C-alpha cells in the first residue's frame, strides 16, 4: 500500500497509490466515460472566457460553468443533454478506502490538461456537503499543484503530482485555495495524445 503523507493539516497525499496496471485499467474506464460524455471547454461566468482545460463529469451530478449562470452542479451534460455516465468502480473504491465519509461521492469532475493548460487558484465551494473531503486522482503527465490557505493572497506551497498519485483535502483544508501552475509535458505516455487527466471526487448534497 502506498504511504500516506500529510502535506498540511487536512491535506493528505498518497504518492504512487495506483500501480501501472491500476492506472491503465482506470484510464480505460475513463476513456469509455468520455466517449459517452465528450470533453468540452466551459466558459467563465461573466466574461465568457473559455477555460484552458477540457472537462466532463461522471456521476449523478456534474460541475459546470457558463457565462450566464456561473458555477453549479447539473444532472445533464450541457452539450449533449444526456445524463453523465456512472463513476468508475475503482474511483468509488478509493473514496470508500481513503475518505471514511458516510456517503458516496455524487460527482467526478474530469479535467484534461494539454500543452499550456492550467488552473488558477480557486476553492471548491459549490457543494452543500462541506464536511466531505475532496479526493483527487492524477493520470498522465506530472503537474505542479499549488495550495494555500483560506485566503487567495495567503502563503502557498507546491507539490508535484505524478501519474497514479492521490491527494485528498478536507477538515481545516476543505476550503483551501489550490490550483495547477503547469504541466510537465511528455513526462508520461499514458494519455493518448499526451497530457494529464485529473479526476476529482466530490460529495455535493448533504447526506440524509
How is the secondary structure organized here?
Elements lengths: L4 E4 L2 E4 L5 H17 L17 E5 L3 E3 L7 E3 L14 H10 L8 E7 L5 E4 L11 E7 L1 E6 L9 E5 L4 E4 L8 E7 L11 E7 L6
Antiparallel strand pairs: 1-2, 2-11, 3-6, 4-5, 6-13, 7-12, 8-11, 8-13, 9-10, 9-12
Give me some keywords for this one.
13 strands; four-stranded antiparallel β-sheet; seven-stranded antiparallel β-sheet; Jelly Rolls; alpha+beta; 13% helix; 208 residues
Care to give the gist of this entry?
This protein is an alpha+beta fold and 208 residues long.
Distance between the termini: 33 Å
Please identify, by name, the CATH architecture.
Sandwich
Order of helices and strands: EEHEEEHEEEEEEEE
* DSSP helix fraction: 10-25%
Per CATH, the superfamily is Alpha-ketoglutarate-dependent dioxygenase AlkB-like
Specify the overall morphology: globular
Kindly provide the radius of gyration, computed on alpha-carbon positions and rounded to a whole number of angstroms: 16 Å
Describe the structure.
The protein has 208 residues and is of the alpha+beta class. It has one domain: Sandwich (Jelly Rolls). The chain is 13% helix and 32% strand. Strands 1-2-11-8-13-6-3 form a seven-stranded antiparallel sheet, with helices on one face. A four-stranded antiparallel sheet has the order 7-12-9-10, with no helix packed on it. A two-stranded antiparallel sheet has the order 4-5. A hairpin with a 7-residue loop joins β4 and β5. The chain is globular.
Amino acid at each position: 500500500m502506498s504511504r500516506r503523507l500529510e502535506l498540511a493539516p487536512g491535506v493528505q497525499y498518497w504518492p504512487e497509490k495506483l500501480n501501472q496496471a491500476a492506472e491503465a485499467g482506470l484510464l480505460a474506464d475513463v476513456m469509455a466515460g468520455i466517449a459517452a460524455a465528450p470533453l468540452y471547454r466551459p466558459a467563465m461566468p461573466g466574461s465568457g472566457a473559455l477555460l484552458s482545460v477540457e472537462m466532463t463529469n461522471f456521476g449523478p451530478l456534474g460541475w459546470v460553468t457558463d457565462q450566464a449562470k456561473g458555477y453549479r452542479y447539473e444532472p445533464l451534460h450541457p452539450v449533449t443533454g444526456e445524463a453523465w455516465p456512472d463513476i468508475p468502480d475503482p474511483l468509488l473504491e478509493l473514496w470508500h478506502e481513503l475518505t471514511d465519509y458516510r456517503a458516496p461521492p455524487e460527482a467526478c469532475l474530469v479535467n484534461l490538461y494539454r500543452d499550456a493548460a492550467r488552473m488558477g487558484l480557486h476553492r471548491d465551494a459549490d457543494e452543500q456537503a462541506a464536511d466531505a473531503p475532496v479526493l483527487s486522482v492524477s493520470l498522465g503527465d506530472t503537474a505542479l499543484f499549488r495550495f494555500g490557505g483560506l485566503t487567495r493572497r495567503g502563503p502557498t506551497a507546491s507539490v508535484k503530482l505524478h501519474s497514479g498519485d492521490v491527494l485528498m483535502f478536507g477538515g481545516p483544508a476543505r476550503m483551501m485555495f489550490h490550483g495547477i501552475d503547469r504541466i510537465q509535458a511528455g513526462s508520461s505516455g499514458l494519455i493518448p495524445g499526451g497530457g494529464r487527466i485529473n479526476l476529482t471526487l466530490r460529495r455535493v448534497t448533504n447526506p440524509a
